[in-house]
Structure formats: C-alpha cells, structure tokens
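U., I forgot to send this yesterday:
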Amino acid sequence: MSYFSSFDPGFPVATEPFDQKNEMFKRSCWDDRFLDSGRRFYKGVVLNNRPGWGQPEFSALNASWSLDMNFTSGMGLGNMGLYSWKGPSGRAEDYVAVGGRFEAAADKLSCLVKSAALQFGANLVGICRIHPAWVYSHEYNRKTGKHKVINPPEGVDKAVVMAVEMNYHQIKSKSLVLRGVAVGLGYSLMAHLANQLAIFI
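Result:
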C-alpha cells in the first residue's frame, strides 16, 4: 500500500482494511462455529446469589452501558447518535461556533484539541494520520444483519485518538458482571467524550 510507504511501526500490521463482520463480537452472531460462544457471552451471565452476581451488580451493569446502548448504536456502529457526524440532532448547523471560524497554526490547534479531550475526560490523547488499512472496510449490524461499505468523508485524513481508562480491579474480578460494569462505563464515557470533542472541533 503506497499511502504509508515509509511507515514502519516495528511490528506486523494489516495491509488491507478489515471487515467488521469478522470481528469477534459480530462473528458470534452469524458464524455457526461461534454461535455457542456468542450465546454464552451475551446470554450466559445471569443473576444468582454469588458475590458480584446479585441485583445491585446487575443494576450497575445496566447503568454503566446506558449511554452507549441508548445514545449510540450499542457497541459498534458509526455515524449515529452521539457518534453522528452531524450530532444527535442531525443538524450540523446547531454546532456552528459563535464568531465564525477559528484560525491558528496546526500545532496550536493540536494543543487546543488535546487539552479539550483531556478536560472532557480522556486519559490519553494523540493526533495521527489515518492509515486506510486501519479503518473497517464494512460495517456490520449484529441486530439487523445489515452489512454495508464504510466510506470515510472526503478529505478526512487525520484522527484524534483517545483512551479511556477502565477500572483495573473490576476488570480482574471473578464476576463477569463487575467486569461488564467497567467495560460498559468505558464505552459510555467514550461516546460522551467523542461527542463533546467533535462538537468542540
């Protein structure tokens, strides 16, 4: 691929875009070899009397995922809800900055964007060029089975990359419910953060 002919990350990387239909969360919905794993993952975590598996933990699990499930697509679809290019209202004009376009040197703009990301809740933030092989070739909706080509907007060649920390001790827990709370909170914070930073930009 000529886009990054001089790019060498120092480890093997994909050279072609990956179809989201084949990632582990989506594959377990349509590939017969993974259906049982998918059922265990999505349906196998049930309420019981063991520590970490009770009603309070399940309530926390549902609450932690609420932003992701209700205001995005629920793990994995782009350009909708809080991840929409035009914002949740569907009208980009709702977010036009007062006073018109802000002009500054690229390094100053980068600092402003990074500072805003950290202020809104990112634990780490960076800005990079987009490698075409690192964007999904297709999007797959595990609820509807819809499978469509992803066409990034014309002229978009850079990305702001943010990391959201998940609770280390919960991720290590023996309770899949408590692990799910940490992950759900991370996904919900990610949606909240991405939306706020997009509006800032």
